[in-house]
Amino acid sequence: MAMKRIDVIREISKRKGLIICNLGFPSRELYSIKDKNTNFYMLGSMGMASSIGLGVALCQKEKVYIIEGDGSILMNLGSLATIAAYATPNLNLIVVDNGVYGSTGKQPTHTAKVADLKKIAKGAGNKKVFEVKSIEQLKEALEQGGPLIIVAKVNQESKKVPEVPLEAEFIKKRFMNAIYELNK
Fold first, then answer.
1. Other residues' Cβ atoms within 10 Å of the Cβ of residue 107
2. For a disulfide at 53, which of 20, 36, 67, 79, Cβ 3.0-4.6 Å?
3. Domains, the chain, with CATH or none
4. Rounded CA gap, 54 and 93, in Å?
5. Distance between CA atoms of 147 and 144, rounded to whole angstroms?
6. Which residues of 5-23 are buried (b: 16+ CB within 10 A; e: fewer)?
7. What's the CA gap between 23 and 26, in Å, rounded?
8. Higher pLDDT pick, 108 / 162
């Protein structure tokens, strides 16, 4: 049985550090698991979690966990080359690959047939790239130290969880304040 996205997110949420989370169901699931000041929920900017996460990782020493979807990373493949170019050791990009645009009606992404995200990430110059199909493999990969990119193969299930009830401006300010407090 394939992994569930919510289980991948639950494992990441247990770790100390900052989390930048892709829009739609991933952010909703993260919020339902554990809301905290160090979580940044994307609201309406598909494909930008990896770029924002890299910017955050470059600015401070805390570990940064970026939860991105396969459809989103396909919309911003340039971020993979930029991550490789900067090679910041506190960056951990986890691409949750379910082969569909899960938040918009489960239309197939190109990973369902032709796009191999592990090969694309390596081809962009990233050294530590893993594909995982179990929580145990995810835990092992996360221990490798960054920068790393993990492609987590999951099923298409979306947990029935409510929308994130926070305004975008509040999320931004709360997250910025959390980073400031961590870096005092």
1. 10
2. 20
3. 5-182 (3.40.50.970)
4. 9
5. 9
6. bbbbbbbbbeeeebbbbbb
7. 6
8. 162
What's the CA angle centered on 128, arms 1 and 6, to 5 degrees? 35
Contacts 24+ apart (CB under 8 A), 28-34: 28/159, 28/161, 28/162, 28/163, 28/164, 29/5, 29/158, 29/159, 29/161, 30/67, 31/161, 31/164, 31/166, 32/159, 32/161, 32/162, 33/6, 33/9
Joined together, the tokens standing for residue 100 give: 């569909």
pTM of the model: 0.93
| Structure-model confidence comparison of residues 23 and 136, the more confident one | 136
Give the angle 54-145-77 at the CA atoms, nearest 5°.
Answer: 35
pLDDT at residue 16 in the model: 93
Going by C-alpha positions, the residue among 128, 129, 93 that lies closest to residue 21 is: 93
Cα–Cα distance measured from residue 140 to residue 13, given in angstroms and rounded to the nearest whole number: 16
For every residue of 2-21, DSSP letters joined together read PBPHHHHHHHHHTSSSEEEE
Structure-block tokens of residue 9: 């997110």
- DSSP-derived 3-state class of residue 70: helix
Q: Calculate ∠ Cα 67-152-54, nearest 5°.
A: 35
Summarised one tens digit per residue, pLDDT across range 19-53 is 999 988 899 999 999 999 999 999 878 889 999 99
